[in-house]
Design a protein that fits this description.
Length: 514
């Protein structure tokens, strides 16, 4: 029978109707075109028992009722008590006994589509006198099935075997990929094998190959488990024979120090697998060995100016092929440093929309190339890389400066940053609405300024010859000016400025009626 809509949020419809569910991505497994057939002698059409029987037949069971006696839903769990328990499994039949909330006297059966947890399942069901649905059912608030009938649960099956990646060679690491399965597993466990024998304690997804693995073939067994399914096992193909090892560079040698004539460079030895290796060094200049440069520190001479220098480390170990590892090349060795002899400055007034410019300093050598980056409170302003910059709303209240990067071929580059400007001010817009009435005018003033909020300060309001001075808060104020004769009067409003907002004004007129 069709379950009534419960008040509790424990039996929630995910979709309704064959068409609606199909459009929402929820399948009816072909029942919509087969529902007229009476499966297990159940009534065809919209009927929970016929739909559940159809799903069991589609899963591989014969189209004959597997018990004698009535076919009403409330009888299923009793008739099949020997395969009914309280554990939800994908592919099981969820069963509600008679008058178990939220169903009625005929009970209800549904197909378990998904087991989210021990307290949440998704089901599909069709209903006598109702329609096809998918529902989400939780234990909270009632509505949980009386049991789960395990006629023909869906098994977790392997669709594509696990694979082993990596080089089968001593000193290398093999990595297992778990393959693909009929459903997405929640977890995997691994067991590695060598020549078909389980390797003790080798239960991670990776396997480090030691010297004892030479000549063996490696495979991995993956056990997959998923909520609502029985675990399943699959084994990868074996690798080729594990080859003897080679020395592997774990960390390349590195060179530290300034690539500047007269400075010293120092090379690290790098690190290697396996360890306990013997290491020697040879320095190269533009790829050519520097005579006698076999110590781990090298003092740069004018001979190296304009070249790139690197350290090449030779590594050897008994039983392994020798190898070499090279550091990254240094930048071209420099002969001097660009110097700033007179500072760069910022010219102009730091005000919204008013251009500022870089005032160049003096550098040595004088033909060094300068590039600029404008800074807002020390942080780069995106796209502001020219010699001029006009402050925007985001700059209001900030202090602007310019970082100058100086470069010249053959010299060490330099960076100079100007002193910061005072805080950037913004320019107000004074909007006025003046309404004339006999003998008076009501003047409403709104002051806004890009980048500023909560504008405060003093305004003067003059209508004709009458003037009032008042304070504004949050940029708003309404002023009534009295003692006005009939006629058209000039309206002048002046904001005197405050904090980061400069002064501004408005001029207009208002008609005072008789």
């Amino acid at each position: 029978m069709a379950p009534p809509a419960p008040a509790q949020a424990s039996y929630i419809a995910l979709c309704s109707g064959y068409t609606g569910c199909r459009g929402a991505g929820y399948s009816n497994a072909g029942y919509s075109s087969s529902s007229s057939h009476m499966y297990w002698r159940m009534y065809g059409g919209h009927n929970c028992t016929n739909y559940a029987a159809y799903r069991m037949v589609k899963a591989g069971m014969p189209d004959s009722r597997p018990w004698s006696g009535g076919g009403n839903a409330e009888n299923w769990g009793h008739a099949m008590a020997f395969i009914t328990d309280t554990t939800p499994k994908v592919g099981a039949v969820a069963w509600w006994d008679a008058n178990v909330y939220p169903v009625g006297s005929s009970g209800h059966v549904a197909y378990v589509e998904k087991v989210v947890s021990s307290s949440e399942i998704w089901i599909s069901d069709d209903n006598w006198g109702g329609d096809f649905h998918w529902h989400k059912v939780t234990k909270t608030g009632g509505g949980w099935p009386s049991g789960f009938i395990h006629f023909h649960d869906v098994a977790l099956t392997n669709k594509k075997l696990p694979t082993v990646s990596g080089t089968p060679q001593v000193g290398q690491t093999l990595t297992a990929a778990p393959g693909t399965w009929s459903s997405t597993p929640d977890s995997y466990t691994y067991q590695w094998f060598a020549d078909g024998q389980a390797i003790k304690d080798a239960t991670a997804s990776t396997l480090d190959l030691g010297p004892g693995r030479v000549g063996q073939q490696i495979s991995v067994q993956v056990a997959a488990s998923a909520q609502g399914y029985a675990s399943a096992i699959a084994t990868s193909a074996a690798t080729t024979d594990v080859a003897p090892g080679e020395i592997t560079t774990v960390a390349q040698p590195q060179v530290s120090g300034e690539a500047l004539v007269g400075s010293a460079l120092t090379a690290t030895r790098g690190s290697y697998d396996p360890g306990s290796t013997t290491k020697t060094v040879q320095w190269l200049s533009n790829g050519q060995p520097i005579a006698g440069a076999t110590a781990w520190t090298l003092r740069l001479t004018p001979d190296q100016a304009g070249t790139v220098v690197r350290a090449v480390v030779s590594v050897s170990r008994a039983g392994y092929e020798p190898t070499t590892a090279s550091s990254a090349p240094t930048p071209s060795v420099l002969g001097g440093t660009v110097k700033v002899t007179s500072p760069f400055t910022v010219g102009g007034v730091p005000r919204l929309g008013q251009p500022l410019e870089v005032v160049p300093g003096v550098v040595d050598p004088s033909d060094a190339t300068a590039s600029y980056q404008w800074l807002r409170d020390g942080a780069p302003i995106p796209g502001a890389t020219g010699t001029t910059y006009s402050p925007v709303a985001a700059d209001v209240g900030a202090h602007l400066s310019v970082r100058t990067d100086l470069s010249r071929q053959g010299y060490k580059p330099a960076t100079a940053t100007t002193d910061a400007t005072t805080a950037v001010h913004t320019v107000p817009q004074v909007a006025v609405t003046a309404v004339g009435k006999p003998g008076r005018a009501q003047v409403s003033v709104t002051i806004t300024a890009p980048g500023a909020t909560g504008i405060r300060g003093t305004i003067t309001v003059r209508v004709g010859t009458q003037t009032r001075e008042v304070r504004v808060h949050d940029g708003l104020r309404t002023v009534t000016v009295l003692n006005l004769r009939p006629g058209t009067k000039a309206v002048v409003v002046k904001y005197l400025g405050k904090d980061l907002v400069d002064a501004g004004s408005y001029r207009g007129t208002v008609d005072i009626p008789r």
